[in-house]
Amino acid sequence: MSDQHHPSGHDPAVAHHFESADQQYQSAKLGMWVFLATEILLFGGLFVAYSVYRSNHPEIFIFGHRFLDKNLGALNTVVLIWSSFTIAWAVRAAQLKQIRLLKWLLVATMVFAFVFLGVKVGEYSSKWKHGLLWASRYAPHAEEHVGVDHNAAATSNEASREVGSSGKPAVVAASAGSAPESGSSRSTIPLAPEGPAGLAVEGEGSAVGHETSLLEPANARIFFSIYFLMTGLHGIHVLGGIGAMLWLLLCAFRGDFDGGHFTRVDMVALYWHVVDVIWIYLFLLLYLIH
Amino acid sequence: MAEQTEHGAHVASLRLLVVVLIALMFGTWLTVSATYVDLGALNIWIGLAIATGKATLVGLYYMHLRWDKPFNAFVFVSAFAFLALFIGITLMDTAHYQQVIIPAWPAK
Amino acid sequence: METDTLTVAGAVGVDRVDRGSYLTAGGGVRSWLFTLDHKRIGVMYLAAILTSFFLGGIFALLIRTELLTPGQTIMTADTYNKMFTLHGAVMIFLFIIPGIPAALGNFVLPLMLGAKDVALPRLNLTSFWFWMVGAIFALVSIIVGAVDTGWTFYTPYSTTTGTAVISMTLGVFILGFSSIFTGLNFIVTIHKMRPEGMTWFKMPLFLWGLYATAIIQVLATPVLGITLLLLVAERTLGVGIFDPSLGGDPVLYQHFFWFYSHPAVYIMILPAMGIISELVSVFSGKHIFGYRFIAYSSIAIALLSFLVWGHHMFTSGQSGITNMIFSALTFSVAIPSAVKVFNWLATMYKGSIRLAAPMLYVLSFLFLFAIGGLTGLFLGALATDVHLHDTYFVVAHFHYVMFGGTVIAFLGGLHYWWPKMFGRMYSERWAQLSALLIFVGFNLTFFTQFVMGSHGMPRRYYNYLEQFTRLHQASTIGSYVLGLGFFIMAGYLIHSLFRGRPAPANPWGSATLEWETTSPPPSHNFDRELSAGDPYDLDSLRYDPNIGGWVRKNPQSILLAQGGTT
Fold first, then answer.
1. Which residue numbers in chain C have pLDDT < 70?
2. A94-139 per-position pLDDT tens digit
3. How many C-alpha atoms does A251 have within 13 Å on its Cβ side?
4. Are A47 and B79 in contact (CB under 8 A)?
């Protein structure tokens, strides 16, 4: 931390308004924990939306999650867990003045973060290709442009849809359950007899090339709104974390940590761990719906 | 194992970090496997419990709460408490008025 | 008469006004805009929020002028919708939420702790810059056509109207971060930077108020953040969360919005109550009564404030059981507020009351806040709220608590700390006149609105029935009296900056630590390390007519013991 003027005997790394290095460190720590509490409440709003829609319209979640690839989600979870490990180790390295190790660990963490984003970009573009976007742009179709326009009055009684296949088999995630029974639907709007082309290949021995029909409930589009909002906000935070780590790397090259002043690394690491923890819940709640 | 910096801050041992990493990977495997077992309504709660276990490990060991002043943990946990309040009451309310807007809603 | 360092300091303070204080240490716009000195940040915030209050006040006067007659008076209906929206948005987000914590709290908090600054000075400056950026977004919105949704931005109108909703909500989003950072800073500062001897229960009650406020700022504001982000996403991307035609739920917006906005009103009142605790003790010449009760009630209010948001939604379609729960909890949150009022009255009882300007504001507060609080009970009861919701009764209620409560207390605090901040005394006579005009003008403006509302006059309405004309006109005249009172206040306060009598270190006879340094303070705040005694031990002070201020009978008592190190 920089200082304006240091009375004699005052450690220059301790800002002028602090009595001691420990007071400065503890203040930074408490400040960061309070900030992390605000992040929980920020994401929390989206978790509220999730809870409300899932509890009142479980059918759209049971339907929608099939288009998320559980394996990619699990991969991303593992990637972020490893990134938490490397950044926790980076804090240790900074504490022990192991600067070369610190730099490598920061790089490793950023690599993991980029892998995470890469996988997400892959997932997002596959959704885009198939029109599985948020509510107003929800227009599911197979690879070729054969979709029916879903943007017209989603709540109209005409909820039945026919997706013309043009040779592309409708691949549907074959999880342990089958298509949701009409009895579980809470809506009086009749279910669609045929759903849009599924995309995820879930689990081993999935039925590739096997045409399966899937019942799409009304307002399934809301699932994708929630999916993009939650993972999108999370992704923005991952980007922010990458930026912070880049800054730490620059500081490391500048020699800022040579004297064992590791507080900055510690603070960024705390932030990054929360990003990881939030993903742990997102993975569970969006990808692993039974 | 109780390494310290010059100013007395606790340094986590590498062994501990690796142990936690393995535990987190195991937890991930467990969560995914659990989805192949049908336990009905219990599934989501088991998943949440495992996720919370993982979060607790990250919090205690990677985020140092185990060796920090307890107030820091209190701050973090209280955020979840308020979130739970928000979710709980909103869920209760929205569930109740579904009856009004959806005719075929099964009466509670 | 013994001369000791602090008496001399009091005398020296006479000279500090023009040299050697934080005001004059380094000039130029850059040194202010990039300062890390909490006192300068506080003063900049003060200028910023007073400007916002002026702007919001102009909107108010325009509204009231339009309402002089039914039908069109000076503007169209569409413009009127924008006027009340902007009045609300500017007053709430630019003035009253930052208000006391940012302008007075930033200045006073470290001084009350005997500290050199807040814990995180750069975060403090960042918070101010965020305020500026948020204000710019809001101004842009106003310039490109403004917003007509009401400050509450309810869906579905806010997601479909053609007005500049996005720039305004983004502005509010940014202002939210300014608020969060201020709260975060105060929590850390109060936890980590209390001086020797100042345990939690030896803190001045203004700090308890700021602490409780900070808890709310930190926990509630992020929810406003996500709510506004969702609104922007709805308008730009069409995510459909609140849009029924896309499967969404518009009442969900209200849950989200009020989860923040109800606790927000306690962000407004808690610091105000903290100020009243300070002022009522000093100007009654008595130790505060029931210190622990007041301290605990601040925390109780902060926590309970999160449990009552649904009382804004009684008629929205919220379920019956939820309505009942929120109504019951709403009654409970009145209790800690009442506890405070009784303690303040008990402080005054058998005290030696000085009717200086700050005390006039205390008395106004007690009267006006009591009315505001009691009328909240009418609104908290389901059966009556059904009739009063969205009428002028609600408008009157919240103006009594926000204006009659927060703004009045803010004015009391402003007059109390003015000498400390600027080293000048203002004209007591003009201040008393202004306080009187504000009290009379306020009641004329808003009491009539209780009457109107209970007779069915709806809020936010441009047009109204003939029967309400007299009451509207009385209300409008009241608003002009209010305007006059504030105009006079601006006059004597600005005049004092140039011609006011130089202020001694402790003009009022308070025992809190900010008075242990000169008026205005040097950049580094204190020349000595201080330890804290009882902040309400007024007997430890005596009046010194030579300097026209108060001094410690035993100056050594608050100095940190020599040879002690931290």
1. 1-19, 561-566
2. 999 999 999 999 999 999 999 999 999 999 999 999 889 998 888 8
3. 21
4. no
The answer to whether C108 touches C38, Cβ cutoff 8 Å, is no
Q: Which residue has the tokens 């005719």?
A: B103
Q: Which amino acid is at C57?
A: G
Same domain, B64 and B75: no
Same domain? For B50 and B98 the reply is no
- 């579904």: which residue's tokens? B98
Q: What is the pTM of this model?
A: 0.88
Q: Domain span at residue B76?
A: 69-108
Side-chain-side CA neighbours of C458 within 13 Å: the count stands at: 7
3-state class (DSSP) for residue C28: coil
Nearest CA to CA, how far is A167 from chain C (Å)? 31
d(CA A144, CA A165): 9
Indicate whether B95 and B108 sit together in one domain.
yes
A260: left (phi over 0), alpha (psi -120 to 50) or beta: left
* CA distance linking residue B58 with residue A83, whole number of Å: 12
Cβ pairs bridging A and C (under 8 Å): 130
Q: Are A41 and B82 a contacting pair, CB within 8 Å?
A: yes
**The token pair that represents C257 in the structure block:** 């919005």
Into how many domains does chain B fold?
Answer: 2
Judgement on whether residues B4 and B38 belong to the same structural domain of the protein: yes
What length does chain B have? 108
> Considering only CA atoms, which of A66, A290, A54 is closest in space to residue A199?
A66
Task: Suggest the residue from B30, B31, B46, B62 to mutate for an interface test with chain A (most A CBs closer than 10 A).
Answer: B62
Give the start-to-end residue ranges of the domains of chain A. Answer: 30-126+219-287
B4 HSE (CA, 13 A, CB side): 6
A5, A6, A16, A27: best mutation site toward chain C, by most C Cβ within 10 Å? A27
Residue with tokens 């442009």: A145
Question: What is the rounded CA–CA span in Å between residue C279 and residue C409?
Answer: 9
Six-digit token pair at C439?
A: 């009290």
- Can you tell me the distance from the alpha carbon of C464 to that of C412, in angstroms, rounded to the nearest whole number? 36
Q: Does domain A30-126+219-287 have CATH number 1.20.120.80?
A: yes
Residue of C486, C451, C490 lying closest to C471 (CA atoms): C451
Task: Kindly tell me if the per-residue pLDDT of A186 is higher than 60.
Answer: no
Chain-centroid distance, C-alpha C8 = 35
> Hey, are the CB atoms on C251 and B92 less than 8 Å from each other?
no
Same domain (yes/no): B34, B87: no
β-strands C541-544, C549-552 pairing = antiparallel
- Say if CB C359 and CB C283 are below 8 A apart: yes
pLDDT over 70 at A160, yes or no: no
For chain C, the domains span 1-34+506-566
Residue A214's pLDDT is 58
Answer whether A21 touches C (CB < 8 Å).
no
Pair B1, B46 in one domain: yes
Query: What is the number of residues in chain C?
Result: 566
DSSP state of C548: T
ipTM computed for the complex:
0.91
